[in-house]
Amino acid sequence: MMPLSARLLGFSGLLPFVACTLALSLGVFSFVPWLSISLCYGAVILSFLGGLHWAFAMILPELTIQQQRNRFIWSVIPSLLGWCSFALPAPYAGIILIVGFTGQFLQDLAIKKLASLPAWYLPLRLQLSCVAILSLLINNLLAHQST
After folding, report:
1. pLDDT tens per residue, range 91-130
2. pTM of the complete model beyond 0.90
3. How far apart are CA 97 and CA 91, in angstroms?
4. Does residue 54 belong to any structural domain of this protein?
5. I need a labelling partner for 90 at 20 to 30 A (CA). Which of 4, 41, 68, 124 fits?
6. 108-132: burial string, b at 16+ Cβ within 10 Å, e else
């Protein structure tokens, strides 16, 4: 069973994505750069998710040296993608982040095959990733329509 704190904190982490999507769709405070805020938050969260794989590499004894090395290598890629997204115009930055979140989930699937993780981990990651990706996609589309 998923710990309540993991559920609450995980879904609370979606609030900025959802708030930006609602603000963009409703035209709330049109002077606020909601898309930029959403993209910045996406980069931060993507970086955080990469850090999970650094932790997996450190604490999962069942990983081989090569698997551990691969986790360490992957763990920095989301941060680099997030950083690169800052240098790109909004539509492209959003695409980079969407690709990053998708890649991160694929890496979560890969680690689940290699190690024993809680049964609730992948379902939670899938739900959170889907909302983040959908939010970034909608925000990109809404911002593009308003220009």
Report:
1. 899 999 999 999 999 999 999 999 989 999 999 999 999 9
2. yes
3. 10
4. yes
5. 124
6. beebeebeeeeeeeeebbeebbebb
Please give the C-alpha separations between residue 62 and each of 40, 55, 71, 122, in angstroms, as whole numbers.
35, 13, 13, 19
In a domain, 11, yes or no: no
What domain range is 45 assigned to? 34-145
Q: How many domains does the chain have?
A: 1
Residue 39 CA to chain centroid, in angstroms? Answer: 11
Specify if 118 maps to a domain: yes
Do the beta carbons of residue 137 and residue 94 sit within 8 Å? Answer: yes
69 within 8 A of 43, measured Cβ to Cβ: no
Query: Does residue 69 lie in a domain region?
Result: yes
Burial (CB < 10 A; 0-12, 13-18, 19+), residue 84, is middle
Residue position matching structure tokens 């790109």: 88
> How far is it, in rounded angstroms, from Cα 97 to Cα 45?
10
